[in-house]
Amino acid sequence: MSKIHLKHHHNLPRDETRKRVESIAADLKREYKMDYSWDGDRVLFKRSGASGSVFVGEDFIELDIKLGMLLAPLKGKIEDTIRRDISAKLA
């Protein structure tokens, strides 16, 4: 099993951060067919072979993903895509 952990700091108000994280979650759903739901300040997402969460903190978001064996070889591509998306959406 492969893991991705990203922490991104920002200067956005909490409500705006939540809106943008919602957009990131929608992108994950579209690109990787991941279902997601909110649980307080955390977005939980899951699909066959992958699961994880995004925590919305006061001045940061923290993403954790577990990739199954089939997706593990794509870890670098998935991580790069998510990193770019987070940077663009929280800029």
Characteristics:
91 residues, TATA-Binding Protein, alpha+beta, 5-stranded antiparallel sheet, 2 helices
Structural notes for this entry:
The protein is of the alpha+beta class. The protein has one domain: Alpha-D-phosphohexomutase, C-terminal domain (TATA-Binding Protein). It is built from two helices and five strands, in the order βαββββα. Strand 4 and strand 5 (about 60-65) form a beta hairpin.
Brief overview, please?
By secondary structure, the chain is an alpha+beta fold. It has helices spanning 14-32, 75-89, and strands at residues 2-9, 35-39, 42-47, 50-56, 60-67.
- Percent range of helical residues: 25-40%
Q: In what order do the strands lie side by side in the largest sheet?
A: 1-5-4-3-2
Uncertain spans? none
Give the helix/strand class.
alpha+beta
Give the CATH H-level superfamily: Alpha-D-phosphohexomutase, C-terminal domain
Number of strands: 5
One letter per element, helices H and strands E, the order comes to EHEEEEH
- Assembly status: single chain
Give the tally of structural domains: 1
Q: What's the overall average pLDDT, rounded?
A: 92
Report the radius of gyration as a whole number of Å: 12 Å
Shape: globular
Distance between the termini: 31 Å
CATH top level class name: Alpha Beta
Helix count? 2
- CATH topology call: TATA-Binding Protein
CATH architecture: 2-Layer Sandwich
Strand portion: 35-45%
Largest sheet: 5 strands, antiparallel
